[in-house]
Write a structure and sequence with these properties.
This protein is of the alpha+beta class. The protein folds into three domains: 170 residues, Aldehyde Oxidoreductase, domain 4, CATH 3.30.365; 158 residues, Aldehyde Oxidoreductase, domain 4; 339 residues, Aldehyde oxidase/xanthine dehydrogenase, molybdopterin binding domain (Aldehyde Oxidoreductase, domain 4), CATH 3.30.365.10. Helix content is 28%, strand content 23%. The strands form eight sheets. Strands 10-11-8-18-15-16-17 form a seven-stranded mixed sheet, sandwiched between helices. Helix 2 links the parallel strand 3 and strand 4. Helix 2 runs parallel beside helix 3.
Length: 732
């Protein structure tokens, strides 16, 4: 394995020149001096920085800067502050930050919320604690070294006297902000690494949190937009007469396509007094479309094309050793081609946004994952400064990457400006599935060489898939380095001769990231192919993988604190095997499958047991193990891994988006299905104990599920499936 080069979505977009107006509004984690200036003391609140407010009644209000979409991030990040502050969690409440660079990077994707913000949140909490202790020392007139903080009190260690945090707001506000606050030792953590109750759980069960579609403003209108069935098609003409006859419909207007990565597709909008009227009015529209160049896009012919292309030599993107020699001298070789279709996010809450342009300002309420990018898109459209735009982030009913792209927000702003009233745009489920940013379709060709000892001496991996870069820049047909670095060029196997190639695969729809991104594609082919090699070599799949990973070693990458450690990858694999009782005697028609993957700097292994009887597939259990460094909230991590298992099974069973004559064929959950409760297996999750810096959690659990499932089916039936979804194979 050569040096790992990690290219983040942020650095990639910066390299394309979109940092100031595209994916992520330029902002960074603050330096040691930023976000420390206190607000003037108002007599009742201690505010050591913009993330913390301690009231004189003891209530502690903490600011959440990342979006809550079932990921538990509001609890995880604020609990880090509370832990370092030695605060009482029962006295904590959380406010959601609006989109603003002063709150640091707010983009909630890439499994990086905790990874980016763990240390800054610790320092903020430690700063507040130090100032409270200093304030108590001043009030008592004693040395601060004789004091300690504990559960919302400062305690005199000599006599046990206590001062409540709320009684120290004045004194704490008057002491200097420490430059280098002392952080806790991990052994002293009170909340970090534990199973902390969600700050939002009571609200969730009582329906209290506000989602985007819950927003109601005085005088608000509702809008539904008809978009061209073919991506980037435009309106030729339309007749609004029948739509205007629908009770509640107020107006029909055309909105333009904005040719930016996150610009609206354009179309015809129906404005109404309620959502139902807007949707019915949209159905009544008569529109003639200019479908444009993508009208020729057909999944059937496209899939056949890339499956043929991937059998031909492509552009080399990694070439170690001499792969041609190894194939020539091999005792035996194995070849396979894999195919995965387009996928769509389909979050339970469809895209929606409320916009209100008035008096030279714009206010937005929306479930967005990237509030700063959203703010920039809105400001650019209105040709105004960022200060005139406020993005209020609601709760998200799921996101999976779709709500990082604020095209739906700009639609609401456009319509509000046109009609001079607040407007709520709600997409239907059909809109969501037919007009999304899709996960890439792919074909992959693998070839491996085995020597006389059945050791893998050569590895060829050739991939064809449309690139996310096509959404941001002229499409070359080739993929980008950051996409190869998600399980392909950073292959964690100790093989001397490796070649990776890329062949052209032009995009015909908007391509975007979906939970785990290209790790889904490459994690699938690498893990299934490793199993095929193990069978060919006549070796146990578990030991075969351990041998492939090779000796313990550290491989450096461009992230100093996150170098690849092969021992960790082997450890999660062995632990998963132990938890699943790997090697046990299985009933007839049962099989067990293995997959292991490194992504978002986390190490994950999953072992799945299935049975297949007369083409009736049943998943009995999943055992997953994750090493994500320091675990902030074990409850959240477990839930994320369980959710990743269900997400991965849904994709493997049913996930498939296809196009015919340029139009997406699927429309709702009847033809883009999700796993049902009755099909959900028992999921066991183990989190590796670690004091290393935290890594990703939300996405790394996904890539291992489909390949482990395929490998388990093979061990149950002797048949290897190389295309997904399995419903096309008659298994579900």
């Amino acid at each position: 394995m050569s040096a790992i080069h990690i290219v983040t979505r942020r650095s990639f977009i910066k390299s394309l020149g979109f940092a100031s107006g595209g994916l992520i509004f330029a902002c960074s984690i603050p330096s040691s001096t930023e976000n420390k200036e206190q607000k003037p003391f108002n007599g009742s609140i201690f505010e050591p920085n913009i993330f913390i407010q301690l009231k004189d009644n003891g209530e502690l209000v903490l600011l959440a800067t990342r979006s809550e979409m079932g990921n538990g991030v509001r609890t995880s990040l604020t609990s880090v502050i509370a832990d370092e502050m030695d605060a009482d969690w029962e006295k904590v409440s959380v406010l959601q930050a609006t989109g603003d660079a002063k709150f640091m990077d707010q983009n909630t994707d890439g499994s990086r919320s905790v990874r980016f913000l763990f240390e800054p949140m610790r320092k903020m909490g430690a700063t507040a604690r130090a100032m409270l202790v200093a304030g108590a020392a001043k009030k008592w007139g004693i040395d601060a070294n004789k004091l300690k903080a504990d559960n919302h009190y400062v305690i005199n260690t000599e006599n046990g006297d206590k001062l409540f945090y709320g009684d120290l707001v004045k004194e704490a506000s008057e002491v200097p902000v420490p430059e280098n606050p002392v952080l806790k030792k991990p052994t002293d953590f009170k909340y970090i690494g534990k199973g902390l109750k969600s700050i939002d759980s009571k609200g969730f069960v009582s329906g209290k949190p506000k989602y985007g579609i819950d927003i109601k403003l005085e005088g608000m209108k509702y809008a539904a937009v008809a978009r061209c069935p073919v991506t980037f098609g435009t309106v030729k003409s339309f007749n609004k007469d029948e739509a205007l006859k629908v009770k509640g419909v107020l107006d029909v207007v055309e909105i333009p396509r904005i040719a930016k990565p996150f610009g609206p597709l354009g179309g015809v909008a129906v404005i109404a007094s309620n959502t139902w009227a807007a949707l019915k009015g949209k159905e009544a529209l008569l529109i003639e479309w200019d479908n444009g160049a993508n009208e020729t896009y057909s999944s059937e012919s496209y899939d056949a094309m890339i499956e043929q292309n991937v059998l031909k030599k492509g552009k080399e993107i990694r070439n170690d050793g001499n792969i041609d020699r190894e194939f020539k001298n091999a005792t035996q070789t194995v070849e396979s081609t894999y195919h995965l279709p387009h996928l769509v996010h389909a979050p339970m809450e469809v895209p929606n946004a409320t916009g209100w342009v008035h008096d030279g300002i714009c206010e937005v309420w929306a479930p967005v994952q990237a509030p700063q990018a959203t703010r920039k898109e809105v400001a650019d459209y209105l040709d105004t400064s960022l200060e005139n735009v406020t993005i209020n982030v609601t709760f998200l009913g799921g996101g999976f990457g779709r709500k990082s792209k604020p095209d739906f927000v700009v639609e609401a702003v456009i319509l509000s400006k046109i009609i001079d009233a607040p407007v709520q745009v709600i997409w239907s489920r059909e809109d969501d599935i037919k007009h999304s940013y899709y996960h890439a379709v792919s074909a992959q060709y693998m070839k491996g060489a085995l020597d006389e000892n059945n050791k893998v001496t050569g590895w060829l991996h050739r991939a064809a898939y449309p690139s996310i870069t096509s959404t941001f820049a002229p499409d070359t047909g080739y993929a980008a380095g950051f996409e190869f670095g998600q399980g392909m060029t950073n292959l964690p196997y100790a093989i001397e001769n490796i070649r990776c190639e890329n062949v052209k695969a032009p995009a015909h729809v908007r391509i975007g990231w979906l939970r785990s991104v290209y790790n889904i594609i490459q994690g699938f082919s690498v893990n299934v192919f490793a199993d095929e090699l193990a069978v060919k070599a006549g070796k146990d799949p578990l030991q075969f993988r351990l041998d492939l990973i090779g000796p313990d070693r550290i491989i450096k990458n461009n992230q100093e604190d996150y170098h690849f450690d092969s021992a960790k990858l082997k450890h999660v694999l062995r632990t998963a095997a132990k938890n699943a009782n790997y090697g046990k005697k299985l009933p007839k028609n049962h099989g067990i499958g293995i997959a292991v993957h490194y992504s978002f700097y986390s190490y994950v292994a999953s072992i799945i047991e299935v049975s297949v009887k007369e083409n009736n597939l049943k998943v009995h259990s999943i055992h997953s193990v994750i090493d994500c460094g320091t675990a902030i909230n074990r409850n959240t991590i477990t839930a994320q891994m369980e959710g990743a298992a269900m997400f991965g099974l849904s994709l493997a069973f049913y996930g498939k988006i296809t196009a015919k004559n340029g139009a997406v064929e699927q429309s709702n959950f009847h033809d883009y299905q999700m796993l049902r409760i009755s099909d959900a297996p028992k999921v066991n999750v183990e989190i590796v104990e670690s004091q290393d810096k935290p890594t990703g959690v939300g996405e790394p659990g996904v890539p291992v599920i489909a390949p482990a499932l395929i490998n388990a089916i093979f061990n149950a039936t002797g048949k290897r499936y190389k295309k997904l979804p399995l419903m096309d194979e008659g298994l579900v």
